[in-house]
Structure formats: C-alpha cells, structure tokens
Design a protein that fits this description.
Blueprint (H helix, E strand, L loop, with lengths): L3 E8 L6 H4 L12 H10 L30 E5 L12 H8 L4 E4 L4 H10 L3 E4 L13 E5 L4 E4 L5 E3 L7 H6 L2 H7 L6
Parallel strand pairs: 1-2, 2-3, 3-4
Antiparallel strand pairs: 1-5, 5-6, 6-7
Length: 189
Amino acid sequence: MQNHIEGVAYVLGDNIDTDQIIPAQYLTYNPSIAAEYKMFGKYALSGVPEAAAGLPKGHVPFHPPTGDGFVSPYKIVIGGKNFGCGSSREHAPIALAAAGVVAVVAEFYARIFYRNSVNGGYLVPLEAKERLIDRICTGDKLVIDIAAGTLKNETSGETFSLLPLGEVAPILEAGGLFPYAKKVGMLAS
C-alpha cells in the first residue's frame, strides 16, 4: 500500500452500486488471466449514467477518447454515501484497480465492497469526514497522505481530513488478507 497517493480525481455521487462499477455482462472475464483482467479496466464504471459520470458537470467519460481504453487517467475516485452497494461481487474493486484506480474516498461504503477492496488488496478505501463530492471536481489534482489522514486538493488548495484505516491498515500494507495471514503466521508459506 502506498502511504502517499497522487492523482487526478473522478467524482461520482451517492449509491454507486456494483452494477455501475462493472456491469454484469462483463463478469464472464477471468481476472486471473492477464488479457481478460485488462477488460475489467476497460469496462470499469461503464454502468454509471452519463449525467452522473464525472461530477459536478457529468458527461465526463472515465476512459477519455484519447488513451489506451483500458487504464483511466483518474487514479482517485471520490464517492458519496453508500459507495459499492448492490451485489457482493468481488469484481467491482478488481475493475477499478484494473483501470488504474489506487484509492476511493467516500462518505461511507457498503460493507461488502469495503471488505472486498481490503481483503483482495485491490485498492485503498478511505472515508472522508465531510461530503467531498460537493467540494472536489472531476479533474482536480489530489494528494492523499494516509499517515497524516489528509487529502489535499492541489487545484483548490483545500485540505480535508480522512478517517484512519484502523484495523485494516496492516492487511492493506501486506497486499491483502492472504498475504497478511502468511505474514503473521496464520498460514504456512
């Protein structure tokens, strides 16, 4: 896990569900096959309605027309309330990670999305102390300092407080639940 994350923001609203993060028709791909893993990145966030994609204006594609179509230029997703709700598919955080997302910062998460993100070591799910979707715009340049618990918007100059990762920090630092269990001797190497 990186303790210092820099990237461009992609802002979404409340109740972004797993069908919006990775629509069901793309679940036929196998993330353990490299060529198919890339497809998760290609279709990440393709289920988000256009008007809600890239707030505050909307209609901002997660994958711009220029680029490779698999990895997005947006490394940090800013979400509202109940991010990752819906089905329990592990493919949702995989899709975001395959698209190049390193962290999601939301008001709060659906529990299963949060644990899938942590247990797989796919991305860092951080929680904001205030509603950031009204303060950050898609395209803003952000810097997250996990140790300090801050998110700085370099575009606006504002700094926001984040909740500490707490008990999941060692799991994320190890790269997921299985590497963590091996590290602490719960599993044989």
